[in-house]
Amino acid sequence: MMMKRDLLPARVAAVLGVLSIAAIASMPWWAERATLALAIEVLATLALAQMWNLLAGYGGLLSVGQQGFIGLGAYALVVFGLQAGLGAFWVIPIAGVVGALAGALVAPLVFRLSGAHFAIGTWVVAEVFRLVMANLPFVSGGSGTSVARTVMGMNAATRMGLTLWWALALGAGATLAVYLLLRSRWGLALMAVRDSERASRSLGVRVGRIKWAVWVAAAGVCAMTGALLFITKLRVAPDPAFSIDWTTTMFFIVVIGGIGTLEGPIIGTIAYFLLREWLADLGSIYLITLGLTTMVVMLFFERGLWGLWTRYVGWELFPVRRRLGPPVD
């Protein structure tokens, strides 16, 4: 028997994706500043959602502490940008290295836990990161500090353009990287680990190594995204940098979009920002609506909005599941 995928939807998605990337990349020459700022936030949020989906949806690692790595990325701006004198955009890849190293260092601790204990452990690690930064005088402690000096000498248009291109690289790059991973034998092993660690081990899958690699990669991308987001804010302080709101946003997006699918974070990100734009002026009603939406989706649409679509249409824009086809002579 031959393994095959339905390629037509994937080809359509590839064409639309290339056109969308080209249109977004050209935005600094035609879009208003407010539109650029929104596009940057959407793409950065998509990168975070894809990483949380990789952890929880494919790796079975339910983390509620990814804000810890976002905060470390933000503080990389303070250390390497403000104090070491590097330009803000040069700090972004360095922030990725910092986040990956931090993820590797805490992995032996959090991987001793599982299930709910793992989730709580990741949150505790993030809180430890926050408390450490809040009590370090050389990064201004709990009062926070401005990082505007890291973009001095750069006009606003250039800064917005570079920020958008970095956000596009992170958002589109995270989606493509996860797709390529899942199409590989490592992706098959990862999904096998998610479904059953015991069965995976019996088949020779190195469960610990795969989980470690996914954890470290997600930490690095979250740190890069954190550095990017705080370039737009130009001020870093412990509470906003390490806010659990970052992780709850990822959770909301992935759950309503469809956990364990590549399309889910994309649909969820669009839905999240549409709801925010429509309801943000309504105060507490906005938060209530987000909570009710999450509850309804979890209760009645276990696979999210994208799962509802595929149930009736059957298309996959990023086909990663193998299906048996007729034998080849």
TrEMBL record:
Chief subcellular location: membrane
Subcellular localization: Cell membrane
Alphabetized InterPro entries for the sequence: ABC_transp_permease, LivM-like
Record GO terms (molecular function): branched-chain amino acid transmembrane transporter activity
Pfam short name (any one): BPD_transp_2
CDD domains from the UniProt entry: TM_PBP1_LivM_like (cd06581)
Transmembrane portions of the chain: 12-30, 36-56, 68-86, 92-111, 118-140, 160-182, 212-231, 251-275, 282-301
Topology of the protein relative to the lipid bilayer: Multi-pass membrane protein
A cellular component term, taken from the record's GO annotations: plasma membrane
Keywords: Cell membrane, Membrane, Transmembrane, Transmembrane helix
PANTHER family (alphabetical): ABC TRANSPORTER ATP-BINDING PROTEIN, HIGH-AFFINITY BRANCHED-CHAIN AMINO ACID TRANSPORT SYSTEM PERMEASE
Protein name: Branched-chain amino acid ABC transporter permease
Lineage per the UniProt record: Bacteria, Pseudomonadati, Pseudomonadota, Betaproteobacteria, Burkholderiales
